[in-house]
């Protein structure tokens, strides 16, 4: 089968690898039908990652189940499913506590699309093996478009987690979003749908700002610190100086969520944060734990994740089209 492999900056290629096989009766084999790059994939393709190539790329997709082991009961061949990016067993103490990105039953950082906790392959592949299938795979709710939800493996539920719990605790909060990619736009849509009194989106890209306007956000090209201006801030740029500006804009006891992958060091205004009482979380996301809630919101019709999809492209075009600078391209194919 073909496995899309990152080989150098702005360069990926198909490589032939053996087809995955079931290794236990609790596993499944799936075939991606709609896959998309995560915001961090875009950084890797631009040469900003910290792992040397080559390695299989891709960790966001909706897939069709091809084969299941005899012990799998939650999905069956033919089902459309979301494949979470991190490998997790669902039964260890950490998984039961919702810390599915830190599963104690698999190597640390086990995931698709990067060889950090073993080589699990990537989801820009013709087939993928899913261990612990009952724990990992989530059926796609009826009526949801696989193209619109291709990011449900990571960026969509991450965006939900960045604001939804905080807006539940702080109804009508003012939300600041400092971003460079799809996560920030999803956050704008979700925050508006869940009752934020104001959403302000900062991004140098004019097309991104236009999308945020469509989600009801005010926008700016650059961020000017607004002391005590926002109750919740989301930083998704991977730039520490932008994170510093975001935390300087929080109200007393404000909350900042950093979803950027910070490959380079930097400084934070720790004294300002101390005096304001800021809560800052920089976190690897436990997608599987809150994926059902994020899918429920998508199925409600109150949000429009499809508006963030910038291009719908053919699966065979992955090597040529993936390195291009698109916001959120989705690559599709038919799998019976």
From TrEMBL:
Residues 25-139 form the Alcohol dehydrogenase-like N-terminal domain. The keyword Acyltransferase does not apply. Its cofactor is Zn(2+). SUPFAM superfamilies: GroES-like (SSF50129), NAD(P)-binding Rossmann-fold domains (SSF51735). Keywords: Metal-binding, Zinc. InterPro entries: ADH-like_C, ADH-like_N, GroES-like_sf, NAD(P)-bd_dom_sf. Residues 183-297 form the Alcohol dehydrogenase-like C-terminal domain. It comes from the Bacteria. This is Alcohol dehydrogenase catalytic domain-containing protein. It comes from Streptomyces millisiae.
